[in-house]
Design brief:
Structural class: alpha/beta
Number of strands: 8
Shape: elongated
Radius of gyration: 22 Å
Oligomer: single chain
Largest sheet: 5 strands, mixed
Distance between the termini: 33 Å
Order of helices and strands: HHEEEHHHEHEEHEEHHHH
Strand order of the largest sheet: 6-5-4-7-8
Bound molecules: zinc ion
């Protein structure tokens, strides 16, 4: 059977344990199975146990396809994990833990933990600089969240002060978007120069065109970048000078957050960001067409070397998710 192309095909294909193992091994070890401990490639397959065995006599010489991946230590089978990865990798606006729980017949708590692990695989941590292909790069920040118990207060404040958005209790996210290319986001402490400018220098190719609003935090970057500023007090678009690309990304992100996810603790926000960034960067363009199947495949190729324990996710030690 060929690799699955649709959700329906994926469900049928991954109902079979051997298909799961073959698919997983091919993505994890594209150049052939190797021992996760010592890297030896002349390993033997123990068909009965669905494990491999290394020829060297070291500890952990027998290993499964899950060892060293986000699936390690999970009693759930790949037959449950892989359809979950498919659902998350291919959903336009994200999937809630309730939907995962319903679709796969696991508890919501388990689904929530699965989601976090899969998001970790989606975080590619690419250090490729933006703007290298000559596309201009838009920089902007947005405020996310605010605790529910402060809702009354902020509504109250807004009424009194007439301010549109209170920065208190909100998490600030900075975004850099290369037009026609990728997006990078990260949570930041404040919008001051010493915070914003090192991120621009680290992530954007010197000499690129940089588009920002009139915010002071970006002033002084014109020694290394062609800095074009749009003054939002005057207009939103002036020819090529605008930040509409990153602003569209913010609305996508917020639609996902409010529509699909019930609440996001600031502590977990970066994982939701990783998920949305993955979705955007794998959206498919004329130059780089993507299908659901290739998006799924991209996540699976990133599952190795990204373990995440329940204690890391929740900050609680001594509890298990399953
Ligand atoms: Zn070995």
């Amino acid at each position: 059977m060929r690799n699955p192309q649709t959700l329906q095909e994926a469900i049928i294909y991954f109902a079979d344990a051997d298909n799961c193992l073959a698919y997983m091994a091919a993505h994890r070890w594209p150049k052939g199975v190797e021992c996760p401990t010592c890297g030896r490639k002349d390993v033997s397959y123990l068909a009965n146990q669905k494990k491999w065995q290394c020829k060297s006599g070291h500890a952990k010489r027998q290993f499964t396809a899950k060892v060293g991946t986000i699936f390690e230590d999970s009693p759930l089978s790949l037959q449950t994990w892989l359809p979950a990865v498919w659902l998350i990798a291919t959903a336009k606006n994200g999937v809630s833990s309730c939907e995962i729980a319903r679709s796969l017949g696991v508890t919501q708590k388990t689904a929530w933990f699965m989601l976090h692990r899969i998001r970790k695989a989606m975080a590619n941590g690419s250090m490729m600089k933006l703007g290298g292909n000559g596309g201009g790069v838009e920089a902007d920040e947005t405020f996310i969240g605010g605790k529910a118990r402060n809702m009354h207060k902020s509504v109250h404040e807004r009424r009194i002060s007439g301010m549109g958005q209170s920065a208190r209790d909100k998490t600030i996210v900075m975004g850099l978007l290369e037009r026609g290319g990728n997006v990078h986001t990260q949570v930041i402490q404040d919008r001051k120069k010493p915070t914003l400018q090192p991120i621009v220098r680290e992530r954007v190719e010197v000499g690129s065109v940089l588009f920002t609003d009139e915010m002071g935090g970006y002033k002084g970057l014109n020694s290394d970048y062609i800095h074009e500023i749009i003054d939002h007090a005057v207009q939103y678009v002036n020819g090529r000078v605008h930040t509409n690309g990153i602003e569209n990304f913010w609305s996508l992100l917020k639609r996902g957050l409010s529509g699909t996810y019930v609440s996001v603790e600031p502590f977990h926000l970066f994982r939701y960001l990783d998920e949305q960034v993955f979705r955007y960067n794998n959206r498919g363009t004329q130059k780089k067409p993507m299908t659901d199947s290739s998006r799924f495949s991209a996540v699976l190729s990133q599952v190795a070397g990204k373990r995440l324990t329940y204690a890391e996710v929740t900050g609680k030690v001594g509890q298990t998710a399953f």
